[in-house]
Amino acid sequence: MTEHVVIIGAGHNGLSCAAYLARGGMRVTVLEAAGQVGGAALTREFAPGYRVSAGAHLLYALDEGLRRELALDRYGLRMAADSLYTIALDPDGQFVSVANGALGGPGAAAADQEAMALYHRQMNRFADIVWGLKDQLPPRLGTTGRKDLFALGKLGLRIRRLGKNDMREFLRIAGINLYDVLQERFESELLKGALSLDGTLGTFLGPRSNNSVFCALHRFNQGRGYAIPAGGMGTVSVALDAAARAAGAKIRTGARVAGIDMEGDRVRGVTLEDGEQIAADLVVSNADPKTTFERLLGLRHVEAGFADRVHHLRTRGCVAKLHLALDDIPQFCGLDGEQRGQRLVVAPDLQYVEHAFNPAKYGEHSARPVMEISIPTVHDDTLAPAGKHVLSANVQWAPYDLKGGWDGAKDAFLDTCLDVLEEYAPGIRGLVSASELLTPADLEAEFGMTGGHWHHVELSLDSFFMLRPVPGSAQYAAPVNGLYLCGAGSHPGGGVMGCAGRNAARAVLAGAA
Amino acid sequence: MKTFNIDSREHYRNKVFPSPFHERQAALNENREWSRWYDYLSVPAYTCSTMEYFAGRNTCGVFDLTPMTKHRITGPDALTFLNRLVTRDMTKVKPGRVGYSVWCDDRGQVIDDGTVFHLHEGDYRLCSQEHQIDWLLINARGFDVSVVEDTHDVAALALQGPTSCAVLKKMNLPEVESITPFGLKHFDFEGTQLTVSRTGYTGDLGYELWIDPDHAGVLWDRLFEAGELHGIQPMGSEALELLRIEAGFILAGEDFAPAMHTVRHRNTRSPFELGLGWLVDFDKPVFNGRRALLREKAEGSRYALVKLDIEDNKPAEHAYVYDTRGRNIGWVTSAMWSPSAKKNIALATVETPHGETGEKMKVEIYYQRELKWHRKMADAVVVRDAFWDPPRRRATPPADF
User: Fold this and answer.
1) Can you tell me the ipTM of this complex?
2) What is the CATH number of domain B11-66+154-235?
């Protein structure tokens, strides 16, 4: 009798896990609360005729091996654009572009060219260490198991192989803040501001917060740049969904799991919100760890030390998502047609970024936020009516637990965002025919992730690899017989990669073997 | 009323408080010596610890328990909360019953031991050796339960010894003799409620009395009036220490290092390693430490806690323990000459697989004779049962002594 696995949530990791489990011979049912698959990797309409990647909007981390193994291209995955590079916007048109370690644009300082090449080379090597771990099952600490020791040894060896100089630099900067590192290396304020954004996007960190170098490494994808799937991010999910179905997985949408059922010390299945019970030998949760343990399972079913660690997970999202329907392509200062399709960044200097972060610490949103902007319609005309455009931006900081709540503050923050955009693209206000601002509270409501946090759990060295989300569940198996985690809260974290799902599937299959 | 008000803004000015029995204790404390037991003054010995010990075995002794850390646990999830907290099955501890247990961290290492009093349906008192409120509140997350430390709201006395029941009967507590071991009853007493439980730390017939601090004085007075012809004596902590070692009861901080106060992981102990495996109920689907303890059960424990019967009469305090070939295998944690058992006894920690009942060991005893130090390698044997376990401890109703 094949084991029946229920996967809670058809986010991209849930789908990737489903596909690998079904291929591994398991009977798989995926239960998705929303009316469609994808979770936060989703394309949907936000104004009549205008569609947008409602959660993640730039693809930079999708695992190539996974893409190949699951034949996602056969199921419709195609890039409308790839190798997109970053342009640091400047109101006077003195922008700087950063493409695979090379600086361009009128604002680029000659002195920074060489420094950028070195930074790029080193960050690539360092990021290799972080990325090299992403398809690995994290080792358990304190055991003498051969696999565990081998995995730790391999990590040590990877660091050692950097050689003396790079190893020293890696060990020096891996835990510290990006602000200091950028100050040491670069002249241009604009360049430093833009690079600092990589260390803070999606996390509760400013450039001066320790750990921001690590976050930058987590995003540093070996210079491959950013890609935009044709049809938006939902295309990735649709392809994963098809791959999982083709492998034999059953996927049910509109099936909201209300709780994980226990029998003795084992999971027995799940109960849906409408009362339907679904029996399962194993349950894999794509939901974030807090939702999984606190809401779906109940802390009473885990031991208190573990419950305490879950309770203290940091899940305070702080990125808002801005969607604008535009009557025409906006004119960003100094940019020509092709450039407007790149990854555009509003982060004029380090101080600006730090000051944008500061209010978040006290439950306030930035007075002048930073932005990561994409205009996907430059590459893909299926997302908007002919001649019209869509602008999608990550805006931070917009803390989940805004003082006084988001209800009365949303309009003002939207206005703030448009004010900032107007500085960089004069006249853009006049082009806006519709808009949508998703605060972390909205992201939580729409995608079910606690705190509206991209990574489910703050991405940091204290919650990475064998520490993610918390010791006791870092090998995907929860400390509850038959329960596993497969979401962004597990190693290697968020971003549309699919690795957590695939690694979890491996852990499940290894556990069942 | 509280024995002192922890919520007062001034509470930090004082750290050690007189117990609600303090005036009575002071009047009897001939030695004028006080020790500190957490937030309270406690009496090590009123006059002579040996005499107080003998009161506990031959008549009855009164010990002030107020400083013991006490918690009140109520609410719809009180039972499920306790069942996740402690290792034993609390559904078996019915209202009016008391259960001894230990509780562990996730590594299956003992944080503390204590007694849970099921006062009324769903209404529990948890007594612990160490301060536990932080851990209890961490444990309360996800449960509909109220956990309050009420150490300062409850005055308590232990009345221990063969004449204890006769004393309580003389106080006109109806059917007090019908309380079985680990049972409890509530009585109307001087306009308040007096709770009497047949529990204690001496391994003998004995009771513990629980009352609000306002009535502490009158309880003491009535007890000593009733006990006058039954040899009642106040008892200090030194005598209690002797009584509990004879009974084979372990003490946190002495016979094992509580997990929360232990930095080096190897120095903590699991319930199995303390000889308390009988308190671990794996039929419960979840409790703190269960997964680790299942592993330990499969893979074996590192240590065993044993009772040693040692030759001669020199107390083996702080002694090393050796196997018969002379290899060091452990150490003594508590030791005394037992006047009641007429044996030289000790509790000791030894490395497994040592510790089987009947196993012969050697104990390295250092002792002084007129200030001159002597060393003796004494023969010892591991015994199974408590050194002192008289039938009167269990007889219900207890015989009149």
Assistant:
1) 0.93
2) 3.30.1360.120
